[in-house]
Every structure is written in structure tokens, then in C-alpha cells.
Amino acid sequence: MGDFTSVRVSDGTEMRVYVARPSATGKSPAILVFQEAFGVNSHIRDVTERFAKRGYVAAAPELFHRTAPGFEGRYDDFDSVPKHIGAMTTDGIEADVRATYDLLKGASSVVCIGFCMGGRVSFIANSVAPLSASVGFYGNVPPELLGRASRQNGPNLLFWGGLDKHIGEEQRSALRQALTNASKPFVETLFSFADHGFFCDERSSYNPDAVSSAGAAGLMQLMPETARLYGVRNVFDPEENIRAGVKILKRLLVQFDGDLELALAAYNAGPNAVIRAGNRIPPHAQTEAYVPRVLDYYRRLQARKA
User: How are beta strands 3-8 and 14-20 bridged, if at all?
Assistant: First the structure.
């Protein structure tokens, strides 16, 4: 179980942060968890505790602390939310991020994750704190913040819902282009039959069976036939999904004589596509973008370990 603690923000305000810690002692990785527009409610607290069970020190700051300390909105009462969102400023968000990051000093590494409004906050956080990675679920990054793409410290992992009427291809494309122009690594996944808020199991839009437009599902994006081949009983179980994905990548590395580029290309496009391309990266736009992004991320991690 987690608990609230108070921290002093640089603008003189006090902010509560919900912190959950792993049972294991010693140095642990840490994660900043940024709320939806409904505050650090039961769902966000639960997500924070889930990360603690996975070995992270997880901290969720109350981003509405200047206007509504302790605010917990209802998902069927959005009218109570806009005045608090409208009162937020980029300077204030930066100050809140730094105060929460300072609370986690001593962690082996620090990443962040945000949902909806928190997805935008994750993008800001990754530009002001030395984070190892940033994850954003359906977070709209407005044009005035796209310039921060060049200041992103860690790679971005972006999740979108294909049925999301709040964030369309225009907004997704703008963020994608900004990160590409800034030569910043990112990976994005569009779940075609998922709506806005699909991760939250307390919303009506929650869809635990959401899949990508190509039919891939789970963290390692397993196709149904591949999941069956590797004995995955529940493709949405993180441990099962990741174990299968690692086995697939290992097999592909053997098949392509340890060539990581070709193994990644085969993971994305299929081994037959690589073979048809003469044991080269297939001329598919998605694969040609995917391989260098993953390699860049991998090399950055290797450099940090060194």
C-alpha cells in the first residue's frame, strides 16, 4: 500500500504526492505517475501500487494542488475538471515535476508515465528532468509544446486509441514529425478499436482486449498465431507476453546469425519479408523507421550501463 507525503514546490506551494514502495529493500528504479484530469483518484493510486509490486518506487503528484488539493473527480462529471486544467501553467508543471523528481533521488533510474492530461505532462517532464524514458497514453501535445521535442531526454513510448475523437491523426502526426525532426527515438502504437481512456479500468471506455490495427496485442505486440505458437494463454498478461517476445527475438537472432538489425526487422515485418528482401531490411516505411529507433534505444541503454 502507498501513502501520501507532502513536498515543497519551488513556487512556495505544498503538494501532496502518493508514493508506493516495493517490498524489496535496496536501490530500486523509480517512476513518476501523472494523473488524468480526475486527480490522484483510486485508479491512479492503484496504478502507482501496481508499479510498486513490479519493483518500482512510484510517485503520483497532485497536479491540481494549487486550486483543489485532494481533488478526486468522477468519470461521469467532467464539468468539475476544466477550471483546474485551465489554471495549470507550464511553469507550474515544470516545478511540480522537479519537486517529485527530487523526492525520488537515489533511485537507480527514473522514468515517467502519464494518462490523458498526464500524457502531456510526461512530455514536459521528459524535457526538464533527466529521465530514462517517458510513456504517454493518449496525451495530446499542443503545438506550443512541440518545440520541446528537441529537449526530450529519454525515448518516448506513445499509445493511442483509434476511436479517440479527442486526438486524431493530425495531432499524432504533428508529434511524430516533431520527434523525427529532432532525431529523438520513439515508438508508438495505435489500438484501432480503443477509445480515449482505454487503459483506465474504471472508465466505460476501458477495453482490455484492445489490439493494434494489424491485430498485434500486448506489450511485445504479438500476433495471434505467434502467441499460440509460443503457448501464450493470455496475450494481455505482461509476463506471458514479454517472455514470448524475448523467445521470438532470440530465435530470430539465431536465424539471422546474430545480426540485430535483421532480427529486429524480422520481428516487425516477419522473417520471410527479410528473406525476400535479400536478407536486408524490407522496404516498408514502418519497418525502416522501427529498426533504427529500437537500435538507438538499445545503444543508449548499453551506454548507460557502461
Answer: antiparallel
Q: Which domain holds residue 100?
A: 3-213
- Establish if 63 belongs to a structural domain: yes
CA-CA-CA-CA torsion for 219, 221, 224, 227, nearest 10 degrees? -60
The per-residue pLDDT for 176 is 95
Q: Which amino acid is at 138?
A: Y
Chain centroid to Cα 112, Å, comes to 7
Total domains, the chain: 1
Alpha helix (H) ranges present in 54-112? 82-87, 90-103
pLDDT of 223 reads: 83
Question: Residue 78 belongs to a domain with what CATH number?
Answer: 3.40.50.1820
Would you name the residues annotated as active-site residues? 116, 164, 196
Q: Reduced to 3 states, what is the DSSP secondary structure of residue 180?
A: helix
CB–CB of 23/39 below 8 Å?
no
- 91-143 per-position pLDDT tens digit: 999 999 999 999 998 899 999 999 999 999 999 999 999 999 999 999 999 99
Place of cell 532525431: 183
Q: What's the whole-model pTM score?
A: 0.70
Secondary structure class of 196 (helix, strand, coil): coil
The alpha helices in the chain, defined as continuous H runs, are 42-53, 82-87, 90-103, 117-128, 169-181, 224-229, 238-255, 260-269, 271-276, 285-305
Strand order in the sheet with 57-61: 3-8, 14-20, 57-61, 30-34, 110-115, 134-137, 156-161, 186-191
In a domain, residue 154? The reply is: yes
Q: Are 131 and 154 in contact (CB under 8 A)?
A: yes
C-beta separation of 267 from 252 below 8 A = yes
